[in-house]
């Protein structure tokens, strides 16, 4: 679609308005993909079926399990090679032990 066709179709009065808009958004070829696709924004086509959603969730679960294993391996390496303790302290058990020790 040319700027002239856009003027006629959308009732735009001035030529410079259309040209300014085209320069701003950089789409002289209006048949090319929309800006949302150019910037990587995913537009849902149709709602997923339950089977598709389950498959997607299973893939996400598998990916998160791999990440968890990787981070556990990193923590082990840090502990063995560098002597750094990166594990989270259990505050609930520590506070219970303190309470027991104080009352005795």
Mind explaining what this structure looks like?
- The chain is mainly α and 104 residues long.
- It folds into 2 domains: 3-38, no CATH class; 50-103, no CATH class.
- Helix content is 66%, strand content 0%.
- It has helices spanning 3-10, 15-25, 35-38, 50-82, 91-103.
- Helix 1 (3-10) packs across helix 2.
- 0% of the residues are buried.
- The mean pLDDT is 75.
What keyword list fits this structure?
104 residues; mainly alpha; 2 domains; 66% helix; 0% strand; Transposase
Number of strands: 0
* Low confidence ranges: none
Radius of gyration: 29 Å
Determine the N-to-C terminus distance. 85 Å
What portion of residues belong to β-strands? Answer: under 5%
**Helix-strand pattern, N to C?**
HHHHH
Number of helix segments?
A: 5
Q: How does the helix and strand content classify structurally? A: mainly alpha
The biggest beta sheet, please? none
Number of domains: 2
Please give the share of residues in helix: 55-70%
Mean pLDDT: 75
Query: What is the molecular shape?
Result: elongated
InterPro entries: Homeodomain-like_sf
Organism: Yersinia enterocolitica serotype O:8 / biotype 1B (strain NCTC 13174 / 8081)
Protein name: Transposase
């Amino acid at each position: 679609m040319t700027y002239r066709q856009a003027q006629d179709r959308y009732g735009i009065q001035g030529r410079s308005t259309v040209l300014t808009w085209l320069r701003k958004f950089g789409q002289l070829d209006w048949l090319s993909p929309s800006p949302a696709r150019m910037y990587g924004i995913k537009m849902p086509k149709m709602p997923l079926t339950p089977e598709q959603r389950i498959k997607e969730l299973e893939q996400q679960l598998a990916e998160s399990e791999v990440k968890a294993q990787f981070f556990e391996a990193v923590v082990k390496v840090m502990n063995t090679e560098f002597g750094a303790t990166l594990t989270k302290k259990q505050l609930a058990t520590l506070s219970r032990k303190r309470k027991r020790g104080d009352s005795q």
